[in-house]
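Bench log. Compound arrived from synthesis this morning; before running ITC I wanted a structural hypothesis for how iron/sulfur cluster sits in the protein. Inputs:
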Amino acid sequence: MTNKKFYKIIDTLGILLLITAIALITYSHINSEKKEESSLHQLAKEMISSDAVLELQNAKYNKGDIEFFEVKTAHGELDGYIFSSEYFAADIIGYNNRILLLIYTAPDGIHKDFRILEHNETPEYLDEVIKKREIFLGQNLFKLTPSDKLEMVTGATISSNAMSQILRKSGNLFSAHILKNKVIEAPQKGSSATSIPVIIFSVMLILAIAVRFKITATIRYIFLILTVIILGIVYNIQFSSDQIISLISLQIPAIYTTAFLLTVVMPILILIFGNFYCGSLCPVGAVQELIALIRPKKLIPRSPSQMTIKILSTFKYLTLFSLIIGIMLFHYTPILNIDIIRSAFAGLWNNYFILVMLPSVILSLFFKRFWCRIFCPTGAFLSILNYVKLARKILPFIKPGKCDKGVSRQNELDCISCDYCRFENTPFRKPTPKSEKPKLTLSDYFMITATCYLIVVLVIFSV
Ligand code: SF4
């Protein structure tokens, strides 16, 4: 079998794995729809004492019917209300999309407890909010005024701010319209994102496509530095497995947010212009590529062979497959840890992150973009979108003969539009004489060993 055929088979397998994952998820969704109704009652029961009783009530709100629970003591006295924020505050969005809460208050509005019914937040951020749930409790949700600010959870301010607003607005409207109490304040509309990050990310999206037509090494490295500083350090705007899960589960973020740009606009642009995100806009990829610039060439004169890179790079499709199946079918959120992009610039550095991210950054000195090439599930997903590349006829021609990332054909999925092969000074790879059997070099063995190490860490921390 020729190398080209082999590479094509690997690309096709990647696409098939994604299609299989989506088919399995669709099947599981169809089967799970019926469970949702009973879970609402179940969650309400979790919040009340064992001898309390839930009584389902109906009311009119906004020309529609709504349901809520009255909580009664064993003696039949009213002990509180449990209602969903879906009727009152579904327009308030968190980091990615709306958050729906099941809210439990005393008859006078004192907030007793809540459960999250639906969210699309980054789990680590939401965990931070849940850990400090007591800051939301004890407030009178029926009587809060605009000056009665609820506390924020630092490190997760967008999710925390959204939840505070949801509680306040739902409490106000439930009190005014369902219990017919006096209206305390006009409901406030929430927003997850200031316009500045949205504008900045939109500009960078356009620039990343545009600069490819006039690219030089200097322009590229300046762009990568800006990506690290602006999208990484300052705003932490990154496409990660969170956006993949949102897309596959069709949870589309609210419009005019960076989450919407990442989840909807950016993948559409990739379908048109190819995978320029990995090459130019991913801060984790940019860090690795910039580190590779200080590679000691004399100490490490050769890169691994194209074949070695290509074979090892199939792992990223497996990490993507495991992640999608783990989350969507088994709701096993620890598997999200596989994707280090999620925590790199959020400051959520756990043991796994340190054992994977630090070696990956160091390994970038030896193999450019080691993590991106071999393991990144996000990279795998965007590579698959790369297959479409509708505007391929007008895009600059790449020179795979100069590629140092394992790409050997014009339309190979793994091309990240980094344009390294288009720089004048980039040398062509030395072709292996056909008569000569391909040999594994020290570099190949090193890359294989490093990959084995990361596989072990990945497996230990994700099961
Ligand atoms: S083929 Fe060129 S543009 Fe594509 S990944 Fe390789 S070096 Fe970058």
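What the model suggests: The CA atoms of residues 219 and 405 lie 20 Å apart. The two ends are 36 Å apart (CA to CA).
ITC booked for Thursday regardless.
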